[in-house]
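Team,

Forwarding the record for the chain on the shared tracking sheet. I've put the sequence and predicted structure together so nobody has to dig through attachments.
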Amino acid sequence: MKNQKTYRRSRIKNRIRKTIKGTEERPRLSVFRSNKQIYAQIVNDRTGETLVSSSSATEAIESQKITKTEKAKLVGKELATQAKEKGITTVVFDRSGYLYHGRVKSLAEAAREEGLIF
């Protein structure tokens, strides 16, 4: 049997993605969490293009000596400000099978504080 956590997450992710689709009016905010970094992007699924992206691997965020949860907040704020510049105000949140807890939750709350609606 493969890694049980990965298998469980892939099943949850597929179940979520059956119902969540990103459109021009409401693109999808997708989150990927690795052990060290967190990545977020706003995607239009109809055309298959990434509209806005942000990650904690950028030099500005990586160089700071803060916790991973605080880095996720910075990523959420940066993503929301970039989205506002492109005229995106409402999105559909895709947690990609991760629990809405910790880094994923702090990224989502920071994006909401900056003005994204989901």
